[in-house]
Amino acid sequence: STLTGQNTICTYIASSDCGDTDLEKAEVQQWLTLSNRFESDPEGLKLLQSHLETRTWMIGNKMSLTDVTVYVRMIPIVKSWRGEDRLNNNHIVRWFDFIQHQAEICENDLAKQLEKIQIDLNAA
Amino acid sequence: MEFKLSIPAAQKNDNLFNNALKVCIAISVFDQENVEIVGCAGQNYVSLECPKQNKSLNEANSIVRYAFKKVQLVYSDKRFLQSQNNGQISVSDAALIEWEETFLYSNLLLQDKQQVASSVEKVLSIAEFPADFSTAAAIIVMATLYEFIPTFSSTQLQNNYPNIAKLFTAFLHDDRARRGIELAAKYTTPKKTDSEVA
Questions:
Q1: A34 vs B65: CB contact, 8 Å cut-off?
Q2: Range in A20-24, A74-78, B75-79, B128-132 the model is least confident about
Q3: ipTM, 2 dp
């Protein structure tokens, strides 16, 4: 049979990277769902900003499917942000810059083609 | 209580109400007795707090998924759930949920209703919902359609969308689904202030 749906395919392929506990698995799905709507639903971005305030990674203690997927979906959004937007979403911007410079992203042949967004974390 | 479910006030035909329906029906259908439900003014999303893990879920479908994974295989009244997959969401159900998250979410209130209904009819003709709607996909899809389907007459449904008509009728007659709908209606109704009561 044929699988349809970006999130469904991602979680099928990366099934071992979709959370260790039932609650973490639900969190993974939460962010896959919310990130699909970030451009049309600013409430999701508020949740993301709050979530990343105290975190390095989206889920758990390492790079995961969630980080990669949300990062890719955030590229056009972060690219469109200027000045005050980046300041008001500082935790997202910090996380985004961290992810885009990870070896898993920089050294992946496909990911290399993704546009790197210039971010000055010291900008006021 | 092990969990706290916060339900915001919401209007009919609103995504917030739809989300409240999903989670309340899930709590009811999955027979979750360890969840405290509270109304929550001023919040724009449903949330499930899990104090033991110091985490919360703030998206309705993920709450339903989690509730499903926590489900027992036997109802408190000793009847078996029709869904017997030990809380694992099948790939086909995951695809159905994503269809709801994308197609229905984007089109239900915006596109031509006959066109949407035709698409829904096609999907429901191949979806395999258990008779008691005890899967995450069944609850999510049927809750989302709850306010859309009654916009058609019974004759239209029977003649043009028989699968929709059949499933919706069964859904409305399911005791647990009905109880969940009542819960959603209760907790989404704004509480009157003292001055309004006076």
A1: no
A2: B75-79
A3: 0.88
Q: Do B62 and A30 touch (CB under 8 A)?
A: yes
CB B12 within 8 A of CB B189: no
CA-wise closest residue to B20 among B191, B72, B89, B12: B12
Minimum distance, in Å, between the CA of residue A19 and any CA atom of chain B? 12
Tens of pLDDT along B116-126?
999 999 999 99
Give B70's contacts in chain A (Cβ within 8 Å): 22
CA of residue B112 relative to chain centroid, distance: 23
Give the number of A-B residue pairs with CB atoms closer than 8 Å: 64
Residues of B with CB under 8 A from a CB of A: 44-45, 50, 53, 55, 57-59, 61-63, 65-66, 69-70, 87, 91, 94-95, 98-99, 101-102, 105
Whether A123 has its CB under 8 Å from any CB of chain B: the answer is no
